[in-house]
Specification:
Blueprint: H1 12-25, H2 46-50, E1 55-60, H3 68-73, E2 78-83, H4 87-100, E3 105-108, H5 112-119, E4 125-131, H6 149-158, E5 159-169, H7 172-182, E6 188-190, H8 206-213, E7 219-225
Parallel strand pairs: 1-2, 1-4, 2-3, 4-5
Antiparallel strand pairs: 5-7, 6-7
Helix pairs in contact: 1-4
The structure holds S-adenosylmethionine (SAM).
Function: Catalyzes the formation of N(7)-methylguanine at position 46 (m7G46) in tRNA.
GO molecular function: tRNA (guanine(46)-N7)-methyltransferase activity
Catalytic activity: guanosine(46) in tRNA + S-adenosyl-L-methionine = N(7)-methylguanosine(46) in tRNA + S-adenosyl-L-homocysteine
Amino acid sequence: MSFVRRSARMNDSQRGAWDRHAADFVVDVPPAELSTSIADGASVDWVREFGRRADLIVEIGSGAGDSLVPMAAARPEADVVAFEVFEPAVASTLGRIGREGLTNVRIVVADGAQGLGRLFDDGTISEVWTFFADPWHKSRHHKRRLVSGAFGDVVARKLVPGGVWRLATDWEDYALWMREELDDHALLENVHGGWAPRLADRPVTKYESRGIAAGRRIYDLTYRRRA
Ligand SMILES: C[S@@+](CC[C@H](N)C(=O)[O-])C[C@H]1O[C@@H](n2cnc3c(N)ncnc32)[C@H](O)[C@@H]1O
């Protein structure tokens, strides 16, 4: 488990969005012992879920959907599955999905590291996005970090050959750790040989602006699954 859910209440508008849209966009998966973990053997037929066969993108830690919603809207030809453990944020995302009229997004309220490993066949995902996903940026928390060489193994296994993993963080020590863990990964290639240019259509989210306001630099990385 890379994450344990904080329990939190939704405000009225989030509750309304949840009631209106959860049935259409939240994918229920059988939980294991913790509410955010996914039962071993759980599976989702994504072609059936989306009603079509399309490129699959997975975002882990989608928050309120600040990147997810505009980026999915810009990619109507792809289907996007987002993992987010914080229900009020999922509810806000649902409201935005509804307002935008998107049909190519689904959300799983569960740990995305586990979900990626368990709910997708190997070699079926075109892109994985982890943008500011991790609260465990400090070195003393490095064992709890989402991004690691071991998680890189899972991402690499799930990506199609040539598929890409896009990461962004505003914590320098975490960014350097990502490079240490992933640059020499046997199945992943650092596409830019170093930091990636900012992805043109990745919006500046609330978390990113906070980092910038605090004087932190934003680090983007892109890794490609070797053929
Ligand atoms: C700092 S916020 C950033 C949200 C969004 N990516 C953005 O840039 O606006 C991190 C989010 O990732 C979620 N998160 C962290 N680890 C996760 C995991 N393993 N699975 C699912 N969600 C996770 C947290 O609940 C939180 O909402």
